[in-house]
Write a structure and sequence with these properties.
The chain has six helices and eight strands. With about 230 residues, the chain is of the alpha+beta class. It has one domain.
């Protein structure tokens, strides 16, 4: 799926020079403003005020019986499917984190806050140290439906986790023996293996996946995963 253009790059300037044999060049045609329609948000959950949606992707994760994983969506085996919304904001990470904690104190109508599962408590501590925080909300009317909201400072994540991100970018293409070496390095430094970092249902895996969207933007990030157990 192609990523939509980053906010701010809304116009394409094209100059056409038409030269005639022995004649003066004709003036270029007038350029018409090119507007890009805003991306529709399929997630019925509030974003930070003024945030711009940069990308919308489909989300899916399969959890096998007995698999612990790092998913914030649920523990039960099955397939979780929905949408992932990636947004940018000019607010500081501190402002986004305060907003996230306010949502936990006063969840939107129709949602209840979910206590961070035990296997994610230390993951949240690691995340906060690296300028990432997250919260989980359950649909009061449908216990199979959950929303994970992640706030982060992409530039700070790159600065603090640069070496780990380099290892993760190479992980999938390496043979099993080299993967084990990377798993050991990351486990020693962060407490989590590469496989746990890139789990599509984990907050840390979601951050790693979304970082490329912000590479050209000097802004903070918000990611919302809205998924239902099928």
């Amino acid at each position: 799926m192609k990523r939509p253009p980053c906010a701010g790059f809304l116009f394409l300037a094209i100059a056409l020079l038409v030269a005639g044999c022995g004649k003066a060049a004709a003036p270029p045609p007038a350029m018409q403003p090119h507007s890009v329609a805003p991306i529709e948000n399929p997630v019925k959950f509030p974003l930070y005020h003024g945030a711009d949606i940069l990308a919308v992707k489909q989300f899916t994760q399969s959890v096998a019986a007995g698999q612990t994983g790092m998913s914030a969506l649920g523990q039960a085996a099955g397939t979780y499917a929905g949408n992932e919304v990636i947004a940018g904001s000019g607010a500081s990470f501190g402002d986004l984190d305060a907003w996230l904690h306010q949502l936990e104190q006063e969840p939107p109508a129709g949602y209840t806050v979910v206590a961070v599962p035990a296997q994610l408590q230390s993951a949240r501590a690691v995340a906060v140290k690296n300028s990432v925080d997250f919260a989980v909300f359950r649909d009061a009317a449908n216990p199979k439906h959950a929303v994970v909201v992640i706030a982060m400072d992409p530039a700070a994540v790159h600065r603090k986790m640069g070496s780990a991100l380099t290892l993760l970018s190479r992980y999938q293409s390496l043979p099993e023996g080299m993967r084990r070496s990377i798993d050991q390095q990351l486990k020693q430094r962060f407490g989590y293996s590469a496989g746990e970092f890139i789990d599509p249902g984990s907050p840390l895996g979601t951050v790693v996946s979304a970082l490329g969207t912000y590479r050209a933007n000097n802004e903070r990030g918000i990611v919302e995963i809205d998924a239902t157990k099928q």
